[in-house]
Fold this sequence. Notes:
Strand content: under 5%
CATH topology of the domain at 132-341: Serine Threonine Protein Phosphatase 5, Tetratricopeptide repeat
Strand order of the largest sheet: 1-2
Mean pLDDT: 90
Order of helices and strands: HHHHHHHHHHHHHEEHHHH
CATH superfamily of the domain at 132-341: Tetratricopeptide repeat domain
Number of helices: 17
Amino acid sequence: MHAVELARQSGDPTVLAEALRTAITVGAYRFDPAEIDARSAEAVQLAREVRNVTLIAATMTDRVQMLATLGRLAEAARAGLECLQFATDVGSGFKLEIAWHLNQFQFMAGRVDVFRARLAELLAQERQSAGHDVTLFGQQLSLVDVTDPPASIDLWVQTDAGHNPFVFVFPWRAANAAWEGRGDDARVELAAWREYVYPSMPGFIGWYASTWAARVAWWSKDSETAAVLYDALVPFRTQWAYAAGAAIGPVETALGQCAYLRGDLELALRHFEAALEQTAREGWVIQQIEAELYLAATLGALGRIDEARAHDTVGRELATRCGASAYLERRALAPYFDPTP
């Protein structure tokens, strides 16, 4: 933040735009959604003022990610298409980077077949360039998560998750154990993650990784991890865990998972209802499926069976329509509503 103020004092719009980019990237405004919005828009405007095409493409790409982080999917998609056109017109390398974002939007909108086909095209392009290995891994993981979850186990191993400087912060060993049905092992791995990884997690990725960790806690029925994560995630409740590599979903969903696992079902209900409202409004169909199913599980636990069955039915119908077959299965460990009488 101090660097941004010094850049303002310099009177150089290029320096200020670069300082804003850095501040946004490292999460300097992560606790203030209004500042995320304002400063990312300001950076684009500054870049346009100096007519630096590389800086324009960079700040436009940053803006797309920030809009998605704020949960404004339709606006992010429009900004992404504008950025793609600009990058194409000027021959900018950001053309491929923004293409990853646009493909992630296809996934979030429930167009799984389109996402899968475009992912294969992007993979072919990536082999001719470099720099998006983590993004590629994230999108592959997103695909198998909704179609063939056990396949994620091999993906984590293939990407050398234990040594990858971006990936190691996620409790992937716990996730793999959960998918293999080893609940006790998953909870042991989560305990190790809480003790050795979580305390030193960089701020710019902390809340994003914590949102994904809440999913792993849900798959593992781990109330201890849920208790740690809930308070840490509350400041981000209006934001969405988004990256070009993987759109995890609204932080409200993670808060609902944590509240449920802590035994506060009424609080979980409010979080899942908020997540459902957000996802349905913005057209994040994949995340809406999750909100519907988690809401059904919570209502079922509260004894509100007819309401639970209604939400479960909607979630499963959406999953069928999207080809997100993993949501049609009752996962072995995670809390799910059982529609049978």
